[in-house]
Specification:
This protein is α/β, with parallel strands linked by helices. Strands 16, 17, 18, 19, 20, 27 and 28 form a 7-stranded mixed beta sheet that branches. A 6-stranded parallel beta sheet has the order 10-9-8-11-12-13, with helices on both faces. A 6-stranded parallel beta sheet has the order 23-22-21-24-25-26, sandwiched between helices. α3 (130-143) crosses α4, α12 (429-442) crosses α13 and α12 (429-442) crosses α19 (586-598). The radius of gyration is 30 Å and the shape is elongated. The relative contact order is 0.07.
Amino acid sequence: MTGKVIAKSFLLKNHFDGLPKEEDFELVEEVMPTLADDEFLCENLYLSVDPYMRPYSTQIKAGSLMIGGGVARVIESKNSTYPVGTIVVSGQCGWTTHFIPIKSVHDSKMFHIVPPYLKDVSHAIGVLGLTGLTAYFGFLDICQPKFGETVFVNTAAGAVGSIVGQIAKIKGCHVVGCTSSDEKIEYLKEIGFDGAFNYKTANIEEKIKELCPKGIDCFFDNVGGPMFDTVLSLMNRYGRVSVCGSISTYNEKESSKVKGPYVHNYIIHKELKIQGFMAPSYYDRYEEGVQNLHSWMQQMSQNSKLTKTWYYKNAFDGLPKEDDFEMKVTDLPTIADGEFLCENLYLSVDPYMRYFASHMTPGQIMVGTGVSRVIESKNEKYPVGTLLTASCGWTTHFVPKEIDMQHPMFKVVPVDLQEPSLALGVLGLTGLTAYHGLFDICAPKSGETVFVNTAAGAVGSIVGQLAKLKGCHVVGCTSSDDKVAYLKELGFDGAFNYNTENMKEKLKELCPKGIDCFFDNVGGSQFDIALSEMNRHGRVALCGSISLYNEKEMSQVKGPYVHLFAIHNELKIQGFMVFTLYKDRFVEAFKEMHGYLTEGKISARDHVVEGFENMPKALIGLFHSVNVGKVVVKC
């Protein structure tokens, strides 16, 4: 890595007096030290926030780093066991952005490498981390539920409780939970609870008698206090109680005020088993818990999912509109021998879709590319977990056919990217378009001047950075002053807003020696103006013509004209389609671009739109210049 890494950390400034307050914490910064041999530097991606932090904070000194765990990526390493890119979980990293684990920590059970099959690494501190393992071992080992028994869980919509309830359903139990709002009741019903109630508005004893008419066999307690007493009184003979937490008492100012549990007569008479536990005690069985939880997640996810697909409903009349598309929902496709089922993680949103749609018939699946993960397979070449890109169209799930696998965009991603969207952006069609268009067509030389339009877009922003790597003077134009500032952050030597500036005058000002290489994404009048400013033997890569895509009639599209200066200056003007002209060089380009990215020589920004339902909005927004960088939809 180059440059200093500054870590931000929260210290426990004051011990809590009742509930935690913001002024009880202090945010500090420090420069991380240079690594010694066998050390490695981690950058936290997600930090866990848990109730235990309140009582455990009493055990640390004021002024110390606030306790906590997180999932982190190794960003610098001198340790062969933890190379750069490794994703790890540390239960003891604290509230900090960066840390260097000491040997005793990374050799402990609280520190481990995240299994590579996790597509969402935040799960490593949630359902597949301490939270999930707490539910798994606390419920299965202590409660030991049997088919048909009744299970009661409090704070059931919380991180642990919601998982306990779902495991209980997998085991064939009747499951009831209580929570703190009516909205959370709906959530519990969505995830399969047989009954749920709001403990703030209902009589707890009456609701349990109503929803658990046969009594309670297993009680998973996260609350303690009076609720514990009430539930215990309603348990069946030989009932089992797993005591996971006591959140109702955590904020008591004096521990002497905390009473119970009392040794009720019915604990003896009903021969109840009540056991507290700490999940780290089960870390020797970590793999067992994670593998079973992951398997259940996949099964439940697949059983609950449907395929959503956007269809091209109406031929576009100018700019696309939302009612030009139609979404249909169908069952997940089944697979035959030799087939495999893919689930899209991200779908790419690109200007070309507008033009390509004009060659489609209404009723077809909308054209597009995605990055997906294999979630079910009967093909040993593509096992579950394989990450790949495909020309799949606007859909959440698909089974690739032989013809699909022959498409140039069908590629197994060479490395297991921690950010799968990169396979659509800087390390996908976007990055390869910039790479081949600039290097193969423009062939820039050090010291030459390169001009890029729509320079803050997905392709243009990468073109500019690649040109800087070649030692060029780089100028770009874009649609807003904010985007001009972004281009300067990327290292552009000059940039201007074509909506407010005279383009010809700005090119003369910012490119005083003329233009040697022009990477054109726009066409139209911008093409004409830039061409007039080019030097002898200049090279033009025609990547796109976004200014013309929404013309209602192609007869209205004029040019490019064969300007005399194109002849006199002996300009080379070449259009290209990267997935046809350069399809045999994808691996070469990917490796080089991946190297630039990991070495910090280029950066990429994704404009992420959440939700498959928003595909049409994302495409429409693209033509209104709402994005900076690559537009992707997270499915």
